[in-house]
Amino acid sequence: MAISYDILIVGAGHGGAQAAIALRQARFEGSIAIVGDEPELPYERPPLSKEYFSGEKAFERILIRPAAFWDERKVDMLLGRRVVRVDPEGHSVTTEDGETIGYGHLIWAAGGSPRRLGCDGGDAMGVHTVRTRADADRMVAELTDVAQAVVIGGGYIGLEAAAVLAKAGKKVVLLEALDRVLARVAGEPLSRFFEAEHRAHGVDVRLGVAVDCIETDGDKVTGVRLKDGHVIAAQMVIVGIGIVPAVQPLIDAGAEGGNGVAIDGHCRTSLPDVFAIGDCALHANHYADDMPVRLESVQNANDQATVAAKTIAGVEAHYDAVPWFWSNQYDLKLQTVGLSTGHDATIVRGDPATRSFSVLYSKEGHIIALDCVNATKDYVQGRKLVVERLAIDPALLADSKMPLKGLAE
Fold first, then answer.
1. How far apart are CA 159 and CA 132, in angstroms?
2. Is the entire prediction scored with pTM above 0.90?
3. CB within 10 Å: which end of the chain, N or C, has fewer?
């Protein structure tokens, strides 16, 4: 075997970077390496569909840490390598080019790959996903020749990309197969608010539509054909329809899982000395009534990375963090705490027309999540409502003059 490390981290995103950082913070002195399939050092991914895409932030500003940081902490960066095989008995991985790397403990932080269109033309020039720096760079390079873009998918990635394109003066058509945007992650009041905001900024939001194929001139996209036969002209198509968790090498090696790789409360997989964290980790979550979920967020990746690192270093740790998320669109800052999945009632706090309000989600009378738009105070003070699943009179919650802090005491 050419090389071996005490800790091998597969994935150079937020989770992989935080795992290495947390190991050193826990005074782990063994050898550490991060294997990444991109050539770049670990960087922040959320700006790819926002500040980096719009040109507001240079790439150097979204690096998680500069090169010197990793050198000082003796973390080897094995970049531009894709792991395709895991040998749990031999405690080694194999890369796409046949290189074998040994490990004492393996932390799998590979995230996922964008779900692609399965229709004709789905891989044409001008059809993009937003997952890597290279993805964003390709879109930026093509923007000058784009008059109209079509965004497929009304989730956060699609909405953020639509906002950047609209601010850049492009005509934008956003297509969502369901009857509202953000349908999988938010209640109807929030969905309708964001639909109205995007329309007010010139985005043509179309709901309940299905894509038949991508039309091309032979190589490059020229339009999007819908199932009803209507064709929308486009020089660029951005696809934001979710990710496929990158766990096949672990599943092939015998790890339990399916939609992600299953982990326990210490982030251990069913394979010996193998941990998994971040977007690809399927775990029973307290805030989802202990149902198995995957959370695609920086917070989740960082929290699970810290738990895995501490466990390896012999420090007691258990994953039980309250989930939180954010999204920036135009001058709107959305902050979410908790998981609204399974809610049976919503409470709108404040007036959406003021562009500063919150949506509270309850289940059987107990608060399980908040979506806060330009309402940071609600977000900060509402965290306790979610953590303690408090039951409070909806009329009091709806009164925006009544601080949530007072209701939580």
1. 17
2. yes
3. C
